[in-house]
Fold each of these.
Amino acid sequence: MSPEAQRGLKRAGLILLIGGGFLAVALGIGWVQTQRSAQTAADTSPVPIGGPFTLMDENGQAVTDQTYRGKWLLVFFGFTHCPDVCPTALNDIALTLDQLGPLAASVQPLFVTVDPERDTPEIVKDYTDAFHPSIVGLTGTPEQIADTAKTYRVYFKKVPQGDTYTMDHSGITYVMAPDGKFAAHFSPRTPIDTMAAKLRGLISGKKS
Amino acid sequence: MKIVALLLALLCATSTVQAADLTVRDAWARATAGQSKIGSAYLTLKNTGATADRLVSATAPVAGAVELHTSIQDGDVMRMQKLDTIDLAPDATVEFKPSGLHIMLVDVAAPLKQGARFPLTLTFASGQNVTVEVAVMGPGASGPTVTHQH
Ligand SMILES: [Cu+2]
């Protein structure tokens, strides 16, 4: 073997070694992220979030996840007998849309009620329109709502309060890509600027 | 719409009501959204006295019932809880604000419209009653004045 070839072999070995090291680190990071996402449903989550659903929109039309293909979805679960947390979330979505300007045309916010008992299509329509005309309210049968929540791995629970009840519910806003796949999520109280910047990046990245 | 809201906010400087040892300021509420008969009001309470007091109840002619509530963030889950009373230690300031302490207006007879005002009476364990005027802001407002986000 020529000295040239020996040197080449050594270099190849070194590259392999370094490459292997990088791979190990990358795998390590991947593992840590997987562990983390299992708890917080982060962007890197290996288990799919979202998927097929069948619901009724605010105009009483049956809709499925397919109805909204081609749009970036912002999916938030809430209920209209919620004067404190839900208006904040919907207002944040409205202000995010404002910040997106023309890009907002490719975004469809969906407000899925976890209280189908009280929230009829007409009620969710009037409620969501108070915050932004482009937010669509979705309701359905209790089974459809439960199935959709399960698909999105969203927690909700009816809690008696005096002679009425309130709903505990996840405060996460999900971002779904135009192909229906999970793209990102926002925890409760994520600043509007952060949401708008993330969406702008996602939308423009997809276009170019 | 936002400009109108801003002008309204400027016109209606929020008031401060002072009772013997209690100060209530910046009372505001969100406009009810759509057909919702549930509203939420917020304010800042200060006990300026040397003895502890407790907010025990509230009433408003615009609502069938008024309850003291708090919203709790538990991980990513939001919960709303009813409180029987709210403690006011000497010199303590208690702030009601979105996603936290709120005064829940139940069975609101007519929609609360942005720009409207209504009285709210707070009753304390000491026997004091304090009536404040509540300014109705937008349905998703985050405070008593309009902050422009752009
Ligand atoms: Cu409440």
Amino acid sequence: MSETVSANTRPNALSAWPDMRGRFGEYGGRFVAETLMPLILELEDAYKAARSDPAFKAEMDLFLKDYVGKPSPVYFAERLTEEFGGAQVWLKRDELNHTGSHKINNCLGQVLLARRMGKTRIIAETGAGQHGVATATVAARFGIPCTVFMGATDVERQAPNVFRMKLLGAQVVPVTSGTGTLKDAMNEALRDWVTNVKDTFYVIGTVAGPHPYPAMVRDFQSIIGREARAQMTERLGRLPDACVACIGGGSNAMGLFHPFIEDEDVRLIGVEAAGLGVETGKHAASLKGGKPGILHGNRTYLLQDDDGQIIDAHSISAGLDYPGIGPEHAFLHDMKRAEYVSATDDEALEMFQLCTRLEGIIPALEPAHALARVRDLAKELGSDGIILMNMCGRGDKDVPQVAAKLGVEL
Amino acid sequence: MTNRLTTRFAELSAYDRAGFVAYMMAGDGDSQALLDALPGAGADVIELGMPFTDPMADGPAIQASALRALEAGMTLRGTLAQAAQFRKRDKETPIVLMGYANPIHHMGWEKFAKAAGKAGVDGLICVDIPPEEDDELRAALGRQGIALIRLATPTTDDRRLATVVANTSGFVYYVSTTGVTGAGSGAVTEVGEAVDRVKRASGLPVAVGFGVKEPDQAAAIARCADAVVVGSAIVDAMHSGGVAGAAELVKRLSSAVHAARR
Ligand SMILES: Cc1ncc(COP(=O)(O)O)c(C=O)c1O
């Protein structure tokens, strides 16, 4: 959506995808039930119009600054750098955003768009609850009724966020269908949308779903990379050697990567959740352990069995516990523009504690995964290297779960 | 393209009768026995559900049915095998497979189309592949004489309808309500108008489904559509009353549909 391209032309820059069909190479597209097709076509038109409307941009900018707290700083993590013994580790502090994660960058954009379109009801799916909280927050601010679908399993492991959403006035619907996790929450949100087509806007929380969602969510999240690129240039007079981010559906990673895509010397590294280990089958590493398939509106890498049935993801982090990945990541993976690695539950737990102790920053379990690979990369790049990692969320929400894992009773 | 679907709808039209389309899930209970019993119970067309883990256009009844089928070990290959088994004994009743893209995509469009052709399948409804995305699949099915059946819905306006009915064959499935399978159906007068619109645009028979449960309701729709589809109610009857219970329901529904225009 970044450039206008005709249906048959391939965008000539990597950053200019998707094409007119909403494809990133052979990934993406619009695989939805017919009932939803007119809605996503309407959304695409509305988004295009909003993008080029200075009034929309001005409203976004104002709320990003005064309500979300943008820009978030980049921070030199000196003690982690020392600990890892190699490249400088810099953190993009998106965990300082209002509501504690990057999710609000996107929610703000989509809710403002929903208002422009005259929609009077918001729905969202959530895994860790961060996207649900961010959506409920912005919906509260604009006085729009909000319903959040959340897998019953996640309702249990993210209890503080469930209560937060309720305080914010959202209705939280625990989803017991399927296996009661993020993918089922997304199914249920789609079922709601297909039923309430006239008044409802579906705020998808990651760079997945049918076109235009992957491009639109990326655009709203690209503020992460745009700010960081300018901040690193200003502070160090050069770009980082590598940008690193964790990947659930891939929105914080895409938001960090996108403004660097044309900077060929900057490595882009996405960290998937390896759960108990990719070899155990209990993981959420769609690129490493999955195959291309079709789910939730787009063609992308999915965890699936020999019959094309979706396999449940596993991760200690509810926010990474998704059997797919945004189509643009699938594309960047195949084009070899970005590298994709993984980190296990145990590594994330270890990094959660390390970062807290050394930097006084409690990371969410999601970015704690990224930190595990930053540790290796720091050694690999050596002391001349510079790594920029997206600290996309704070770990307050994970404290009860981590305590339980460590055998501490609160 | 003439296949069993075209022939069947022509027969129904010659008798000025609406058709009854029975949906069932492959692999949920003794599905082979139900499949074999459906024509005798009055089904003019059979929609054979292909179970999928993430049926996002289906309501609770069909979701649960799909999970039971998968739990019992049903696969896409297994579904095709049931169709093939049925086809050995019944050469006339059209079978339309209905399900989601991923298992088909995983097998490969071409390979699936060939296997379905060999199994004696006549049509496919793939819920999450809209016209914008179906060219490869449609071409592969076309080579086997299998119709790719499209869905029209209350959100399909006139401009969009032209896209929906372009390059389609067999019949058009009109989803009478915005919602998932098993939810309440649309008001009959609105359905009648929509069916006329779709018929005019497509020149094809129109089957109406989603939310039809009772014989009266089915009969009312049979007066304004070429065929009536019932799914969730049959799936529920199969789960609670087995093959006999489901066949009994199909008899009541199909009798009501067949008698509706008299
Ligand atoms: C803090 C945090 N990071 C990352 C994610 C994963 O999402 P994404 O990959 O879209 O950034 C989540 C999702 O809930 C999250 O809460």
